[in-house]
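Recall the central idea of this unit: under ordinary conditions, the amino acid sequence of a chain determines the structure it adopts. In this exercise we apply that idea directly, starting from the sequence alone.
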Amino acid sequence: GGPPRPLLDAARAGAALEPTGLGLPLSGVEAGAALEAGRWYGVDGVPDVFVSAVLPELVDPAIVSALGASINPLDSIERTALVWHVAFRLDAFDFDFELGTDHPRVGWSERLSRSTPVPGPDGFDTVAPFARTGRVPPYALADVVATFVGGFKRSHGAMRSGDLAKVNNNSHYGFVSNGAVLSTLQPGLATFVIDADGTVDLRTWSDADDAELWRVRHARQNGVPVLETTPDGTPRAGDLVRSWSQGNWSGSVEGNLRSLRAGACIIDNGDTPYLLYGWFSAATPSAMAAVWASFGCRYGMLLDMNALEHTYLSLHRFEADAWQVFHLDTGMAVLDKKAKDGITQPRFVSFSDNRDFFYVTRRRP
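Accordingly, the structure predicted from this sequence is:
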């Protein structure tokens, strides 16, 4: 089961990787056992969810060569930095998006290039009368399978330089929640789209998409594409992957482009498409593009970055009136809470959080 295996360097076939930090239980695999690079492993007790580990240096050299000058060379740290992917079979799950109690905000980013008396890019700086709950709604709790963090805060969610900074008031990243357009979706930005019928897509928003906005139930924009495909299906890096400032890729607290990053990509795979959540322990957008091209992704985009808090993903099983919670990285557990009886209270599920997030529920027959 699972998505197709990535295309890796034949000379390194069968490479074994240590599952450093992995907190997800894998079917038929003892905790801590080495994993075969690129192989998909089912998550124990959570059907239709799969996990894979890889290193950027294991990507098929032909793929790196084909991407050519559209990506930057990777340094020695980035080439050997562990990458995790969690794959969700799209026909088995529904995806939804919720705002955090505080982020993303709807006022102006400090990156706005001009002064204005208008309180925000859409004319307001509050989502009232809508409520920002920052948690999974009660009616969905019984079906929650996973949660993961969304995108940048509003303060970072606007373009600082380049063509996109010169139009649409610096192209503030847009978002839609439960059919309410809380921040206008801007053309040219990478967009995670969930339609009213449950269809999930990742694509660059265009002016033509505005005519179909009525179909959109949820949407979250975050920067520009990391990976796209040509009309004939050939993968290519996004046009701004090599441009730190114009792509608004941000970096580590030390100002390095290489940092902990998370993102999403989509694999069509015939009648069985998959949504991949990628967790890159130390990567630039160039490494993300190369790895996703090897996995056969049609489109890939950055989500959030720089800390476990901002790249959080957890899987859930509800058993015996209690949540069984498993984290992509064990360090993410500090973001949950413990009840007096010692039972884990997961972030976004049992209590509200200030960050926006996606949640995944089992699709009912």
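The longest helix spans residues 285-294.
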